[in-house]
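Agenda item 2: 3,4-dihydroxyphenylalanine complex prediction
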Amino acid sequence: MKNKVKELLEQVEKFTSESIERVEEFRIKMLGKKGEITQLFEDFKTFTAEQKRETGKDLNELKTKTLDKINEFKDLLANTQAQTNNTFDMTMPATNEPLGSRHPISIMKNKIIDIFKRLGYTIAEGPEIEDDWHVFSALNFPPEHPARDMQDTFFIETNPDILLRTHTSSIQVRAMEQTKPPIRIICPGRVFRNEAISARSHCIFHQIEGLYIDENVSFADMKQTLLYFAQEMFGKDTQIRLRPSYFPFTEPSAEMDVSCKICGGKGCNICKGTGWLEIMGCGMVDPNVLENNGIDSKKYTGFAFGMGIERTSMLKWQTKDLRLYFENDIRFLRQFSAVV
Ligand code: DAH
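Presented output:
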C-alpha cells in the first residue's frame, strides 16, 4: 500500500494539462468509482488497526493533494477559456459620458466672489427665512415703508414677524451682530419677492451684498472698489456712473451704472439709447444702521452695495429673458458649459 500511495502521489505532483477534458479524465482515473485512490480506500477498510494507523494519514494526504490539483487546473483553464471567448474590442473608441456643467447663476456668483476675494472680502451667509428685524428694522426701514407691504414680501403663516428675506442686506445685520469692525464681507444668497413673473422680474432671484466697515472708510473708497469690480467683470475700458438715489440703510445712497459694452456708450436698444446700464445699488452705511447693531458710528464708517446675480448675468451674457435662468432648458444651459 505504501508504495502505491507514493507512486500515485508522484503522478499527481507531475500532472499538468492544457485541456479541461484531460483534467476530468484524470479525476475519473484517480477518484472515480473505480479510480485508483478510491480502490485504495476500499482496501483500507480491510486493514487491521495497526495497518490503518500506518497508512491512514498518507492516504488522506494523497486524496487532498489530488483534489487540490484538479481544482487548481479547473480554475486555471476556466479563466483562460473565458478570456478567449471575450469579444470586447479594447481598441474601440470610448463612448462619451455626457458631462453636466455649472448653472450660469453659479458661474456668475463665483465670478463676482472671485473679484471681491482679491480685495480681501470673505463670504458670509444668512438664513432665507428671516425676521422683520434683520430684513427691515435694523436696516432703518420706517414702519410704514412699502417694502414691508404684503404686496412685496412673502410672510410665513400668519406671523408678520417671520418672512422670506427680500434682499441679502439682512446678512449685513447678522455680520454686524456677530463681528466687530473691520468687516469686509460679500454675501451671496437667494431672495424672494411677491412679484409677477416676467422677462424682467421673478419672485425668486439671487443677490450679492457687499459690506465694508472700518475707520475712515470713505465714498471715494467705495467708488474705487466698484470701478475695480466693473472693469474686472465687463472689461478694462468699462466706465461707471453713480446717480443719487435713496435706500433706508445708506446715506448718501446711489445707483451705479456701467457703460454699455454693446454700443460703447453711443446708445443702442440694449441700453435704451442712454449708453448706460444700471447694475447695483450702493451707499455709505447709515449711522443709524451702525448704531442699531452696536457699532460706534463716530469711530467707524462703511459702505454697502447690492446687486442681482441674474441681472448682472443678463448684462454680461446679453440674456433677453430672466425666466431662462429658472426653466433649465438644456439648450440654454449648454451654452455656458465652456464658461468658467
Ligand atoms: N438691498 C437693495 C435691494 O434689494 C440693494 C442694495 C442697495 C443693497 C444699496 C445695498 C445698498 O447694500 O447699499 O434692492
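Discussion summary: Residues 104-336 form a domain with the BirA Bifunctional Protein; domain 2 fold (CATH 3.30.930.10).
Owner for follow-up: CH.
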